[in-house]
Amino acid sequence: MTVSVFIDGAEGTTGLEIRERLAGRGDIALIQLDDARRKDLDARRQALNDADFVILCLPDDAAREAVALIDNDRTRVIDASTAHRTGDGWTYGFAELEPGQAAAIAEARRVSNPGCYPTGFLALVRPLVRAGLVPVDWPLTVNAVSGYSGGGKSMIAEFEHAAAPPAARPYALGLAHKHVAEMQKHARIEHPPLFAPSVANTYRGMIVEVPLPLHAFSRRPGLHVCEAVLGEAYRDCALITLADGDAKTVAIEDDAGSDRLTIRVCGNPDTGQARLIATLDNLGKGAAGAAVQNLNIMAGFDPVAGLTV
Ligand SMILES: NC(=O)C1=CN([C@@H]2O[C@H](COP(=O)(O)OP(=O)(O)OC[C@H]3O[C@@H](n4cnc5c(N)ncnc54)[C@H](OP(=O)(O)O)[C@@H]3O)[C@@H](O)[C@H]2O)C=CC1
Ligand SMILES: CC(=O)N[C@@H](CCC(=O)OP(=O)(O)O)C(=O)O
C-alpha cells in the first residue's frame, strides 16, 4: 500500500528532518510544492486536500490556517506545532504515554505531536503519577537544556551568525513557557510544573530533568520502585530505554541524531532524593521522529519504519 503525504513547512527545520526520514520509502508518495509555491494559499489548499496524510511543520497560526483549509473528510493530519496539543478533538500523539494510546492514534483523523520538552517530562513523570507514587498535587519542577535547533530557523541563524554566542542561556524566566499547559494536562497533575529551560550552543539534543524528593511523598517510594514502574511502563517500546541510574555522567549528545528517548532514575537511595533524567533529540523523538512514528501508526506501517532506534 502507498499513501500520499504532504509536509506543509517542508523547508523548515522539522519539515526537512521529516523529509529525510521518509525519503526512499516505497510506501510513501510525497506531494511537494516548489519554492515559489510553498507559501501560496491555493497551492497549499490543493496539496492539503489531495494528500492522504498531512504533516504540519509550521508556526502555530499557520498550522491553524492549514487545518481550516482542509475541506474533505479523508485527509488525516499530524500537527507538529503547539496549536492543538491541549485542544479538544485532537489525539495526543505520544504512543507510549498511556495504555491504548497507540490504538487511539491509529484511528485518529487529527493527531497533535507532543512538544520536545513535554516528551521528556511526560515520559519520566506520567507512569509514576499513574501508579500513585508521585502525588497529583505535588508542585513538580522541570529543568532542561536544549540544542538551539529547538528554536527553528531563526534561532539557528541567531546562534550560527553571532560573533560570540552564549554557551548556555536560561530563558522563559517569566515561567510562562508555552509547554507548561501541555505538561500539566497530559501528566494529569493539579499544578503547572515550574519549567526552567535553557538553550545551549549545540545544534541538537536535549536533557530534561525532574528532581524528586521521594522521601517527602506519602508512599516514600525508593529509587528502585520508581525504576521498576518506569521499566514496566516502557517494557515493549522500541524507542524508549530505561538506562542505568548509576551512570556517572549524562550528556546532551547521548541521543542526538537518533529517534530514541533514554530515561534514568538517578539519585541517592539513602536520602530518598531522585533526579529523573531523560535524553532525546529535540528534532528526533521530540519532533520529526515522533511525527513519522505517528504517521506509521496511522497508516498501519511498522511503527519504527524510517526511524533510528
Ligand atoms: N525545532 C524543533 O526542535 C521543534 C519544532 N516543533 C514545532 O514544529 C513547527 C515548525 O518548527 P521549526 O521547523 O523549528 O520551524 P522553522 O522556522 O525552522 O520552519 C518553519 C517553516 O514554516 C514555513 N512557513 C511559515 N509560515 C508559513 C506559511 N504561512 N505557509 C507555508 N509555510 C510557512 C517557514 O518558511 P520560511 O522558510 O520561508 O521561513 C519555514 O520553512 C513549529 O510549530 C515548532 O513549534 C516541534 C518540536 C520541536
Ligand atoms: C530551544 C527552544 O527555543 N525551544 C523551543 C521549543 C521547541 C519545541 O519543541 O517546541 P514546540 O514543539 O512546541 O515548538 C521553545 O522553547 O520554544
TrEMBL record:
GO MF terms held by the record: N-acetyl-gamma-glutamyl-phosphate reductase activity
SMART domains associated with the record: Semialdhyde_dh
Pathway it works in: Amino-acid biosynthesis; L-arginine biosynthesis; N(2)-acetyl-L-ornithine from L-glutamate: step 3/4
Keyword NADP: yes
Record-linked InterPro entries: AGPR, AGPR_AS, AGPR_dimerisation_dom, AGPR_type-2, NAD(P)-bd_dom_sf, Semialdehyde_DH_NAD-bd
EC number of the protein: 1.2.1.38
Start and end residues of each Semialdehyde dehydrogenase NAD-binding domain: 4-105
UniProtKB keywords: Amino-acid biosynthesis, Arginine biosynthesis, Cytoplasm, NADP, Oxidoreductase
Signal peptide residue numbers: none
Catalysis: reaction(s): N-acetyl-L-glutamate 5-semialdehyde + phosphate + NADP(+) = N-acetyl-L-glutamyl 5-phosphate + NADPH + H(+)
Subcellular location: Cytoplasm
Taxonomy, superkingdom: Bacteria
Keyword Oxidoreductase: yes
Active site: 116
Main location: cytoplasm
UniProt cross-references to PANTHER family, sorted A to Z: N-ACETYL-GAMMA-GLUTAMYL-PHOSPHATE REDUCTASE, CHLOROPLASTIC-RELATED (PTHR32338:SF10), N-ACETYL-GAMMA-GLUTAMYL-PHOSPHATE REDUCTASE, CHLOROPLASTIC-RELATED-RELATED (PTHR32338)
Function: Catalyzes the NADPH-dependent reduction of N-acetyl-5-glutamyl phosphate to yield N-acetyl-L-glutamate 5-semialdehyde.
Record family assignment: Belongs to the NAGSA dehydrogenase family. Type 2 subfamily.
Name under which the protein is recorded: N-acetyl-gamma-glutamyl-phosphate reductase
Species of provenance: Sphingomonas hylomeconis
